[in-house]
């Protein structure tokens, strides 16, 4: 969902932007090269697909989707010229390069393809019964939390790293049947449509990263990104992503205007308890009652961790959780950590400076040093 919402913003505000993305496997001991040809075949097929009339009509039911964007999607398809697979010193690599508007949708299906092809190769006879047992353990944990009236809410965020499309579909069916009051939606728009769930997603790191090159000044690129998002959605989709340049740097930009304007923030790296405490403190400093705001957690969550976070922040701030790998890929004992991140916009480097080791991604070390220095200064000035 966040790819479509960002894509609409790109169409209206940055249709001329040129970008580059790079694939990265964070597991250094994993060699994906044996499945390269199978991945290429799937991507070739991906580029033949079109949105159907049924899918476009569904998007029209979402009040924040505009007709000109839906008409654009009617003509849209991903193009093979903008994506290439290659060998990088013996490592399987993918590069995406082209207009942002025409490349933004590659990330999620390509990651899902790499995952499914990889697990099809190494685990041709998966133990789905074991997967169902694990799923019902999670469901029982959720049901136990309901006895405490915690108000635990979660969303399926598992498309990018799922074991398979079929398995994700089965998981959603079971969750909807067993814990309908806790499952609030899915980031997968196709499954949202077919299972009558809410499609959930607002912005990703690339929106803020691109604005490092698109905005007038690097030091104010986060404010530029948040302002342009607000202009596009006018109150809808009001969750701000907080860790693209580190949480302290985010808070220095998330002033009273943005604190009141946005419905809440999303956590995606660093210690979640520390993050939530700092967010609550910041809202109070901005004269905003945090109990009316929402904290979304989406960083490597298990159900046990999510329930514990719900308990900790109960009556302090509203919480909900986006659960990915632990939900859709714990059928395998060796889930792989793969990402596709923007590395350039308008020919200039862009970067994500995470609050967690290993999540940082930038090919230009000098730019990364400069970026950190700029935002460390911004954060210290705000204090």
UniProtKB/TrEMBL annotation:
Chain ranges of the Nicotinate/nicotinamide phosphoribosyltransferase domain: 152-377
Residues with the Phosphohistidine modification: 205
Listed GO biological process terms: NAD+ biosynthetic process via the salvage pathway
Maturation and modification: Transiently phosphorylated on a His residue during the reaction cycle. Phosphorylation strongly increases the affinity for substrates and increases the rate of nicotinate D-ribonucleotide production. Dephosphorylation regenerates the low-affinity form of the enzyme, leading to product release.
One annotated GO molecular function: nicotinate phosphoribosyltransferase activity
CDD domains to which the protein is assigned, alphabetical: PncB_like
Gene Ontology CC: one annotated term: cytosol
Reactions listed under catalytic activity: 5-phospho-alpha-D-ribose 1-diphosphate + nicotinate + ATP + H2O = nicotinate beta-D-ribonucleotide + ADP + phosphate + diphosphate
Family: Belongs to the NAPRTase family.
NCBIfam families: NAPRTase, PRK05321.1
Official protein name in the record: Nicotinate phosphoribosyltransferase
UniProt source species: Desulfonema limicola
Lineage summary: Bacteria, Pseudomonadati, Thermodesulfobacteriota, Desulfobacteria, Desulfobacterales
């Amino acid at each position: 969902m966040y790819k479509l919402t960002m894509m609409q913003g790109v169409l209206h505000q940055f249709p001329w932007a040129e970008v580059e993305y790079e694939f990265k496997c964070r597991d250094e001991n994993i060699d994906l090269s044996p499945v390269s040809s199978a991945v290429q075949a799937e991507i070739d097929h991906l580029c033949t697909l079109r949105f159907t009339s049924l899918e476009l009509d569904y998007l029209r039911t979402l009040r924040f989707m505009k007709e000109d964007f839906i008409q654009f999607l009617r003509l849209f398809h991903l193009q093979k010229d903008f994506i290439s697979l290659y060998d990088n010193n013996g490592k399987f690599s993918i590069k995406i390069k082209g207009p942002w508007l025409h490349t933004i949708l590659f990330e999620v299906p390509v990651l899902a393809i790499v995952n499914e092809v990889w697990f099809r190769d190494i685990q041709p006879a998966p133990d789905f019964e074991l997967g169902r047992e694990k799923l019902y353990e999670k469901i029982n944990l959720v049901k136990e939390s309901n006895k405490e009236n915690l108000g635990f809410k979660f969303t399926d965020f598992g498309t990018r790293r799922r074991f398979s499309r079929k398995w994700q579909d089965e998981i959603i069916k079971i969750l909807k049947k067993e814990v309908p009051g806790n499952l609030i939606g899915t980031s997968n728009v196709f499954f949202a449509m077919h299972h009558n769930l809410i499609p959930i997603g607002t912005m990703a790191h690339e929106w803020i990263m691109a604005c490092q090159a698109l905005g007038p000044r690097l030091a104010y690129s986060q404010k530029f990104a948040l302002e342009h998002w607000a202009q596009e959605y006018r109150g809808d989709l009001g969750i701000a992503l907080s860790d693209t340049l580190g949480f302290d740097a985010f808070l220095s930009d998330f002033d009273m205007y943005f604190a009141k304007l946005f419905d809440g923030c999303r956590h995606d790296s660093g210690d979640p308890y520390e993050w939530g405490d700092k967010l609550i403190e910041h809202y109070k400093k901005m004269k905003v009652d945090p109990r009316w705001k929402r904290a979304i957690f989406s960083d490597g969550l298990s159900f046990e961790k999510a329930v514990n976070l719900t308990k900790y922040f109960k009556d302090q701030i509203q919480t909900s959780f986006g659960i990915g790998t632990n939900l859709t890929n714990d059928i395998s004992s060796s889930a792989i950590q793969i990402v596709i991140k923007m590395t350039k916009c308008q020919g200039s480097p862009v970067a994500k400076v995470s609050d967690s080791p290993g999540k940082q991604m930038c090919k230009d070390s000098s730019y990364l040093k400069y970026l950190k220095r700029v935002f460390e200064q911004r954060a210290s000035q705000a204090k």
